[in-house]
Task: inverse folding
């Protein structure tokens, strides 16, 4: 029995994924751009065992709940089909960052699982195929496979949609200072949220203009243009939240602390401190800045009433094996 361990970072989207053309296969309605979050990681070990009567899943030393086990079991079936292998597997996963802190653990979880499970089953996929496979576990997981700054390509509901690196981690010293205002799990998970996106009258406009936003964001990253980057990142986050707030039923993720941070970051920018924010499907705020401002931004965030903690991350590597 061969055990294989893989390591993956979560990622933060600068241009968001929200809504699918095809929900089960996670074919996104539009492309997205993200940065892997170095320093935060999921380590997953997979061991196939002919004596097991079902897959087992242990997360952070505890047996996982049924829903998580079923999601992982469904994913393992894809790997078994690819490998022509009928055996069940023991899956053990550890996160070094708190779960339910607004950092999507499903991205790093399914990226690490895709690599560990395929290698344990004896298959060696190239980066594109690994990204496609990870996508089927969790959409954003496809972006955690390549290194650094990543674009998830999604032209015209392409069934082969996958992510590629657009710049290596060292290209730009950006930091994500994640201001935690609430530690609980999200009330409505991303999966249900994606299914509601089309009920918003704003989603069509958001999706049809995504190619322009992707182009502006890609260019800003390649040219390390923080001003252009800030404008497009905040616009894209606002557009996604506008869709969430106008879905039916509506989704509203912000808390008073969320808004306090958004206002503070805007005023810092007016004072000449280059920082901008983006918010996922939860109340915590990802404040992005360059390395030079990181200490100042982190210290200032900690002073805002309602901020419980700040977690920082830098541009991360791609998913890799632990040898
Ligand atoms: C708001 O990838 O978590 O973070 O495919 O259902 O697992 P599933 O959804 P997920 O959705 C991420 C949504 C987001 C925006 C983003 O990361 O692009």
Result:
């Amino acid at each position: 029995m061969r055990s294989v361990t893989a390591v993956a970072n979560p990622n933060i989207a600068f241009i968001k994924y929200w809504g699918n053309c095809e929900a089960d296969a996670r074919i996104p309605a539009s492309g997205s751009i993200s940065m892997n979050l170095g320093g935060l990681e999921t380590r997953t070990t997979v061991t196939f065992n002919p004596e097991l009567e079902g897959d087992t899943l242990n997360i952070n030393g505890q047996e996982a709940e049924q829903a998580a086990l079923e999601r992982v079991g469904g994913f393992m079936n894809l790997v078994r089909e690819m490998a022509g292998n009928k055996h069940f597997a023991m899956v053990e996963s550890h996160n070094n960052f708190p779960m339910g802190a607004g950092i999507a653990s499903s991205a790093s979880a399914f990226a690490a699982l895709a690599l560990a499970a395929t290698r344990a089953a004896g298959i060696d996929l190239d980066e594109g195929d690994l990204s496609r496979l990870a996508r089927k576990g969790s959409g954003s997981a496809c972006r955690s496979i390549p290194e650094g700054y990543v674009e998830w390509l999604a032209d015209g509901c392409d069934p082969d949609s996958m992510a590629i690196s657009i710049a290596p981690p060292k290209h730009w010293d950006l930091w994500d200072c994640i201001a935690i205002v609430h530690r609980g799990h999200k009330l409505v998970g991303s999966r249900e949220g994606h299914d509601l996106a089309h009920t918003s009258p704003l989603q069509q406009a958001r999706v049809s203009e995504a190619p322009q936003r992707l182009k502006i964001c890609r260019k800003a990253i390649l040219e390390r243009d923080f001003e252009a980057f800030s404008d497009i990142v905040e616009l894209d986050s606002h557009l996604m939240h506008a869709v969430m707030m106008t879905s039916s039923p509506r989704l509203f993720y912000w808390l008073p602390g969320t808004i306090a941070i958004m206002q503070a970051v805007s005023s810092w920018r007016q004072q000449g401190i280059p920082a901008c924010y983006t918010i996922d499907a939860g109340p915590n705020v990802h404040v992005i800045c360059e390395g030079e401002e990181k200490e100042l931004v982190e210290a200032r965030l900690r002073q805002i009433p309602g901020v419980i903690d700040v977690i920082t991350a830098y541009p991360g590597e791609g998913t890799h094996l632990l040898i």
